[in-house]
Amino acid sequence: MQDCRDLLAWIYNGELERSIHQSSHPHITCDLEHVFAFGTSSGGHLSLCLGFGVPRPVAAILDFYGPCRFDDPFWTTGLPHIAAKLPPNLSQDFLNQVFAETPVPIRGGVSLEGQAGPAGPNFKDPRQAFAFTQIGNGRVMETCFPSRDWQKVDPILNIDPRFPPTYIVHGLADTMVPISLSRALLQEMEKHGVQCEMVEIPDEEHTFAAKMKVGSQTWDLQRQGFDFLESLIKK
């Protein structure tokens, strides 16, 4: 979260434009009145976190199936379809190797955004094994944020009338981040008068964005989110 917020401050401070000018394009200017945030899954959450807790929020947000409502029982409930993939011989010592990596790695090990190979996760890699163990056993939130001070990190607890215009895209078949969480977020935004919309994509699981086909129903529906952002530029 802090990295994204630092980047936003860097942009608003004129550093992006300065960098562009220094690199090769001295005539390009940045429209700082229309800095938008877009992300999928955890990136959707990070995008939402640029709408609060910063001196100057983004102008609008496009959130694809981002997690929120972290006190919901879902986050402490195991996912059987993930747990079933876990090998029975994963020792805690093996999983704990992730804490010994130096410097702190910036690679994820496996993508959940539709690019995984047909063989699935590589459970010989401690990082992949650790991640799927937490997901399968319902321990993601206690692992990522053990203090459980959700006010600091949960978008749904930080909605007020000043929150940026937001469009949510979520698949109806999502088993990794239930669509009910995005519906609750939309309801909270509506309650506070935030400009917001949501489209629900039939038959789509989590992380469908990387596998969309141009011209498909999914493609056409998710485009409404980008049309929403474009409409804000035209105002």
Description:
The structure is a single chain. This protein has helices at 2-12, 15-23, 42-48, 80-83, 92-95, 126-136, 140-144, 179-191, 217-234, and strands spanning 36-40, 60-64, 166-171, 196-201. The chain is α/β, with parallel strands linked by helices. It folds into 2 domains: 2-64 and 164-234, Alpha/Beta hydrolase fold, catalytic domain (Rossmann fold), CATH 3.40.50.1820; 78-137, no CATH class. A 4-stranded parallel sheet has the order 1-2-3-4, sandwiched between helices. Helix 8 (179-191) links the parallel strand 3 and strand 4 (196-201). The mean pLDDT is 93.
Quick gist of this model?
This protein is an alpha/beta fold and 235 residues long. The protein has helices spanning 2-12, 15-23, 42-48, 80-83, 92-95, 126-136, 140-144, 179-191, 217-234, and strands at 36-40, 60-64, 166-171, 196-201.
